[in-house]
Design a protein that fits this description.
Helix content: 25-40%
Number of domains: 2
CATH architecture of the largest domain: 3-Layer(bba) Sandwich
Keywords: FAD, Flavoprotein, Monooxygenase, Oxidoreductase
Order of helices and strands: EHEEHHEEEEEHEEEEEHEEEEHHEEHHHH
Family: Belongs to the paxM FAD-dependent monooxygenase family.
Bound molecules: flavin-adenine dinucleotide, 2-acetamido-2-deoxy-beta-D-glucopyranose
Number of helices: 11
InterPro entries: FAD-bd, FAD-dep_Monooxygenase_BioMet, FAD/NAD-bd_sf
CATH class of the largest domain: Alpha Beta
Structural class: alpha/beta
Largest sheet: 7 strands, mixed
Mean pLDDT: 92
Shape: globular
Protein name: Monooxygenase
CATH topology of the largest domain: FAD/NAD(P)-binding domain
Pfam families: FAD_binding_3
Radius of gyration: 22 Å
Low-confidence stretches: none
Length: about 425
């Protein structure tokens, strides 16, 4: 049964629930947007002093594409996204293993990928246009709660709410302050060099080894070798280029979105490869050396008192090969907004438990999907073909509608918790 409130666009009766969100990344902004749409009162606290265009390429699967469309953002987002109709995958010698064709819509919705900074700005502006207060330059240093409310201390000031959401990203302070976890990431054994730059300025269009990337609009190519995969694409009609190359790396440097990589190290990874690889990589004026670390799944994302919760990368970081980190972060916020709406102010803690019950196993399954994709590419035989090396698009992942699903399953989840007591969710058996 689809709940009558499903996809209700115009608000909505006020629920009187005050939600404070820490972090204005994709998780925090999406949570803020959907909370306002469901009638909650929202305040966002963000550490950055100003909106900066950071990062390189980011992807949203059609599971979240359908949410962007529902918010009416397609016309703003689509023109600034990559328009990739196929992905050609080669082995290290440059022999084509497969040409994977993409349809514009998958499971009834678009998927979107483009520059993180540009897409973030669209969501940021949209959040503000809904009347949400986003306070910048806020450093949240404390989280606490009692029976009736939760609060944070930001820049020394205490701010009260019914619910506090920690959406403070992969190096989350909330994880330690709220859940009591010491952050002890382990090396995954892999790192990614990544870059985004102006293709024309760097001469991509003038080098016969690389001009195929901008001659016919946006292009998307990949190479896989033993324990290496490289993906490159162009955006905005071939004007901007990005590449990522994942390789074995045990070095112990800080996990960071801005740690610079050295071009000589990057080129070493593709020694003996199809010469187009080195030609493409060398075009970047600079790149980021991003270590991929593992964190064991947290057994819960909720505080002991039940009014503070973690969403997005703070709760569950993703491998880049899942292409779902930002999408799952957004699904968290959508689901929470619905659960709070259906539960009402007096049952906020029940709503939060039901939210975790609805989200937990799906998130874990999506995380494991990223490991499967990476292993598929890194262990592929040089003569692998077709589906053996294609990026999978499973329906359980991309056909999902988190808003609709929350309306469908909330009552059952809440009833089970009320009747049987709340048990921490179990990890799925794979
Ligand atoms: C600078 C940057 C660049 C990135 N570039 C890419 C990229 O190119 N490609 C990609 O796939 N992913 C990138 N990511 C990660 C990607 O945004 C996330 O994996 C995903 O969108 C989930 O988002 P999130 O909101 O959970 O976390 P994030 O996007 O990391 O957002 C967390 C937010 O919380 C804020 N914050 C942290 N601590 C506090 C505090 N104590 N008080 C207040 N605010 C706080 C941070 O400033 C940040 O804005 C980047 C993240 C960052 C921060
Ligand atoms: C977009 O869709 C295609 C085809 O469904 C898929 O293979 C690709 O991985 C998707 N991209 C993202 C970012 O999810
Ligand atoms: C976001 O809003 C700012 C300030 O109003 C504006 O300058 C900028 O162009 C907007 N960006 C987008 C992508 O709409």
């Amino acid at each position: 049964m689809v709940h009558p409130n499903y996809a209700q666009v115009a608000p909505r009766n006020s629920t009187g629930i005050k939600v404070v969100i820490v972090g204005a990344g994709f998780a925090g902004l999406a949570c803020a947007i959907e909370c306002v749409r469901k009638g909650h009162e929202v305040l966002v606290l963000e550490k950055f002093k100003a909106l900066k265009s950071l990062g390189d390429i980011i992807s949203f699967g059609s599971n979240v594409g359908r949410i962007f469309e529902r918010w009416g953002l397609h016309d703003q987002i689509w023109p600034i996204c990559n328009h990739l109709s196929e992905l050609t995958i080669h082995n290290s010698k440059g022999e084509i293993l497969t040409v994977q064709h993409f349809t514009e819509m998958r499971y009834g919705a678009h998927n979107y990928s483009g520059h993180r900074g540009a897409l973030h700005e669209v969501l940021f502006n949209y959040t503000k246009s809904l009347g949400v207060e986003i306070r910048l330059g806020q450093d949240v240093t404390e989280y606490d709660e009692d029976e009736g409310r939760a609060w944070v201390v930001s820049n020394g000031e205490r701010i009260d709410a019914d619910v506090v959401v920690g959406a403070d990203g992969v190096r989350s302070r909330a994880r330690t302050l709220v859940l009591g976890y010491d952050d002890k990431p382990k090396s995954s054994g892999y790192a990614v060099y990544r870059a985004w730059f102006d293709a024309y300025e760097q001469g991509v269009d003038r080098d016969p080894l690389t001009d195929f990337m901008c001659k016919n609009g946006d292009a998307f190519y990949g190479w896989i070798g033993p324990d290496v995969h490289m993906l490159t694409s162009t955006a905005r009609g071939g004007r901007f280029m990005s590449w990522v190359i994942t390789h074995k790396d045990e070095a112990d440097i800080e996990e960071s979105w801005s740690f610079p990589g050295k071009m000589e190290d990057v080129l070493k990874v593709v020694e003996g490869y199809d010469p187009r690889c080195a030609a493409i990589l060398a075009k970047a004026p600079s790149c980021v050396d991003w270590k991929i670390v593992y964190r064991d799944p947290l057994p819960t994302w909720i505080s002991k008192g039940g009014r503070i919760l973690l969403i997005g990368d703070a709760a569950h970081p993703f491998l880049p090969t899942s292409a779902q980190g930002a999408s799952q972060a957004i699904e968290d916020g959508i689901t929470l907004a619905v659960a709070l709406q259906l539960a009402g102010k007096d049952n906020a803690r029940l709503a939060i438990q039901a939210w975790e019950k609805i989200r937990y196993q799906r998130v874990r399954r999506a995380q494991l999907f990223g490991e499967q994709v990476r292993d598929m590419w890194h262990k592929a035989k040089p003569e692998a073909k077709g589906a053996e090396v294609e990026m999978p698009s499973p329906e359980w992942l991309l056909g999902h509608d988190s808003e609709r699903h929350a309306y469908e399953v909330y009552e059952d989840a809440a009833r089970e918790i009320s009747e049987g007591g709340y048990r921490l969710p179990e990890l799925p058996v794979m």
